[in-house]
């Protein structure tokens, strides 16, 4: 089994998380509601992917972030998704690659991808301990 490394980013603000509706033209998970992210390029570190993908997908630059967890996701390929929590960023959020991005209550788990739900559960469990 070949795992394709990916990085996803959970932008959190005022009890909400930024989600995307993936474009129907995407090869992986078209039309699904998901946490934004993207594939790592060969030789790229996770944090480099995080910076590049946030700029490409949302037109923002993270200024405060931390690693959360990693999960496997089966789509048309096996993806190992490394999740980061983004607590602060610069720029105005724009949907460059998704059909739309929108804020959603953290307490609702209406995500179409199992690994995204697990990552959100992990965030909520850690947040409850603080």
TrEMBL record:
Organism in which the protein naturally occurs: Vibrio porteresiae DSM 19223
InterPro entries: MutT-like, NUDIX_hydrolase-like_dom_sf, NUDIX_hydrolase_dom
Entry-linked SUPFAM superfamilies: Nudix (SSF55811)
Stated name of the protein: 8-oxo-dGTP diphosphatase
Names of required cofactors: Mg(2+)
E.C. no: 3.6.1.55
Domain called Nudix hydrolase: residue spans: 2-126
Keyword Hydrolase attached: yes
Gene3D superfamilies associated with the record: Nucleoside Triphosphate Pyrophosphohydrolase (3.90.79.10)
Keyword Cytoplasm among record annotations: no
Keyword terms of this UniProt record: DNA damage, DNA repair, DNA replication, Hydrolase, Magnesium, Metal-binding, Mutator protein
Top-level lineage group: Bacteria
A family per Pfam: NUDIX
Reactions catalysed: 8-oxo-GTP + H2O = 8-oxo-GMP + diphosphate + H(+); 8-oxo-dGTP + H2O = 8-oxo-dGMP + diphosphate + H(+)
Similarity comment: Belongs to the Nudix hydrolase family.
